[in-house]
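[Q] Does anyone have a clean structure-token version of this?
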Amino acid sequence: MITSVVSVYKLKPNLIDPRFQGCIFATNAKSLRGESYPSEDFDVANGMSIEWTPRELGSIWRPQPVNGPTHAFNDYPCLDLNTPAFSQRAVHALGSMLADNGELLPLKTKIGKYYAFNCLTKIDALDVKKSEIERPYLDEIALDVPYFVFRKSKLKDATLFRIAELPSSYFVTNLFKERVESAGLNGMNFIPVWPLPEGSDWRSDEAKRDRKSKLVQLAGQSLILRLRLRKPKPSVSEKKLASEIEESLAKKLRVLSLSAPYLGTIEISEFEDGEFRVFCTCPRCDELALYLSDWLEDVPWDYDFDIVKRYGNLYDQKAKEKRITIHKASA
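[A] Here you go.
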């Protein structure tokens, strides 16, 4: 087991595997600092300057309600994609690596105990002369850092931290990564940023890894539900019913463990062009449609209801499609 810092990773949620969905602050969550949105409570002070400082929240925190399609097995369902959040299992396994580097702030969820994490550790570890940094002025934070070089002497015993140039990014060392892997935690994506060969672009390298990942196939195809409205704009009753249908579908698709069969997940829903649409990603749209066949027939919708099988991902405009009528208003 390596007991010294030899590598640094950018810590991100797993966005490739659709089973690892994140969470968002609920509509009734309120900023505890009087900000416009509760997520802004985690913003640093003097945020445009490299002299920014983290703001403590522990003394004013009260558990905030969050929701979203997060599964209970996800150990790292970030809030609004960026603010770190850890499961109780992760908090127990990571112990002082979290407690010594920030504040664990309880959240209100329907799936178990989760904590937002307010990182307070800021390390002046980036070698600004050897790194490639894009920023307008020397005393301001960076717009981007395509190439990182860290000073190893500044990383002694470091596990989880932020750097002056990128206050909204979170970095971990191999010590943190090894603890996660030995505990069997999931939902975290460790993007290598140091050391890399000179001239490397960590973001480009990560994109290449993502494209080669077999997990991409879990969202390789799509199923779209199209429920026609009575008028161009939804009525109050249609909004309510649409919400109930979407909730029922989410329950039908829910997986309880990573070993359970995975057929698909809801990505987004919308009212558009006189329809209520629900967009699902899936490994195979034919299998998902078959699995949902009885559920689709029982959907209590009075107007035209179709599904579209797309043999490609949601953004593949050239993918072959097949439209199937579930029922028509005149039927």
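[Q] Thanks! Anything notable?
[A] The chain is about 20% helix and 25% strand.
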